[in-house]
């Protein structure tokens, strides 16, 4: 695969990206968002930059891309908010058709949460828009494509 540098941005992308390249790029953007949000929260205070809905969506997307199941309790930790707050956000995301819950067949006390197809589409669109915005602003992420 041939990689090209996008002039002035320090970004390396395939000349003709495959769906796998796009998925890998989106995953890297989601991981970067997650890391940045945690760093900013640690530096200026989580209460000043809290966005539990976005944190939940990012965590679900990353876990979806890595084929890992996500339990409600894990999303509460990922959002770094009290359980009641995370549960309200999960319910809101569910009402909007972005996520759904399913009971754990092995332990009925637990539930899995996953992005719906509409949720996956929205996350792909949001991560692509984030990448486009970074390129326009000149904030490049170095990606090596092999």
Task: Describe what this molecule looks like in 3D.
- The chain has six helices and four strands, in the order ββαααααββα.
- With 146 residues, it is of the alpha+beta class.
- It has one domain: Arc Repressor Mutant, subunit A (Orthogonal Bundle), CATH 1.10.10.
- Strands 1-2 form a two-stranded antiparallel sheet. A two-stranded antiparallel ribbon has the order 3-4.
- Strand 3 and strand 4 form a beta hairpin.
- Helix 3 packs across helix 4.
- The termini are close together.
- 21% of the residues are buried.
Put simply, the count of helices is 6
Number of domains: 1
Instruction: Give the strand order of the largest sheet, numbering strands 1, 2, ... along the chain.
Output: 1-2
CATH-wise, what's the superfamily? Winged helix-like DNA-binding domain superfamily/Winged helix DNA-binding domain
| General shape | globular
How many beta-strand elements?
A: 4
Strand content: 15-25%
The biggest beta sheet, please?
A: 2 strands, antiparallel
| CATH fold naming | Arc Repressor Mutant, subunit A
User: Fraction of residues in helices?
Assistant: 55-70%
The end-to-end span amounts to 7 Å
The secondary structure category is alpha+beta
Following the backbone from N to C, one meets helices and strands in this order, namely EEHHHHHEEH
What is the highest CATH level, the class?
Answer: Mainly Alpha
Q: Which oligomeric form is depicted?
A: single chain
The CATH architecture can be given as Orthogonal Bundle
pLDDT averaged over residues: 81
Compute the gyration radius: what is it?
Answer: 17 Å
């Amino acid at each position: 695969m041939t990689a090209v540098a996008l002039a002035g941005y320090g970004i390396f992308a395939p000349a003709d990206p495959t769906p796998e390249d796009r998925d890998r790029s989106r995953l890297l953007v989601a991981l970067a968002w997650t890391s940045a949000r945690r760093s900013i929260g640690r530096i200026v205070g989580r209460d000043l930059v809290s966005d539990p809905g976005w944190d939940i969506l990012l965590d679900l997307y990353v876990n979806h891309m890595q084929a890992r199941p996500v339990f409600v309790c894990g999303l509460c930790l990922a959002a770094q908010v009290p359980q009641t707050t995370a549960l309200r956000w999960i319910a809101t995301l569910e009402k909007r058709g972005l996520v759904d819950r399913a009971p754990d067949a092995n332990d009925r006390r637990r539930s899995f949460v996953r992005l719906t197809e509409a949720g996956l589409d929205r996350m792909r669109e949001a991560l692509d828009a984030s990448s486009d915005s970074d390129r326009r602003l000149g904030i490049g992420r170095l990606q090596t494509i092999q």
